[in-house]
Specification:
about 100 residues
C-alpha cells in the first residue's frame, strides 16, 4: 500500500509544479501527510519532511501573495517559472526523498 501511495504522491507533487494554483493545492494536501506513518521509514524522515514542507509553504505563500496582488492573472505562467518553480522543484525533490 505504501508504494502505491508514494507513487500517487510523487505524481501529484510533480504535476503540481505546473502552475501556482496547482502548487498551492499540493502544499495544502501535503501538510497532513506526516499523519500517515507508513509513508516514513522513521521519525527522523518524518521530521525532515515537516521541515521541507515548511519551506515549500513559504514559497507557496510568497507566490500566492504576489499572484493575488497582481489580480490573479491567468497568464502568470512565465512569472511562476522564472521566479518560483526552480526553488519549488528542488524542495519537492527533497521532500519526496523522505518518503519510504
Amino acid at each position: 500500500m505504501a508504494i502505491n501511495k508514494k507513487n500517487d504522491i510523487r505524481e501529484y507533487a510533480l504535476s503540481s509544479l505546473n502552475d501556482v494554483v496547482s502548487f498551492a493545492r499540493f502544499v495544502n494536501y501535503a501538510e497532513d501527510l506526516p499523519q500517515l506513518n507508513d509513508l516514513f521509514e522513521d521519525e527522523h524522515d518524518k521530521d525532515n519532511y515537516q521541515q521541507i514542507w515548511f519551506e515549500l509553504e513559504i514559497i507557496n505563500a510568497l507566490a500566492l501573495s504576489e499572484w493575488e496582488n497582481e489580480g490573479c492573472p491567468a497568464d502568470w505562467q512565465t512569472h511562476w517559472e522564472s521566479e518560483y518553480k526552480h526553488d519549488a522543484s528542488e524542495l519537492m525533490d527533497e521532500l519526496l526523498k523522505t518518503l519510504k
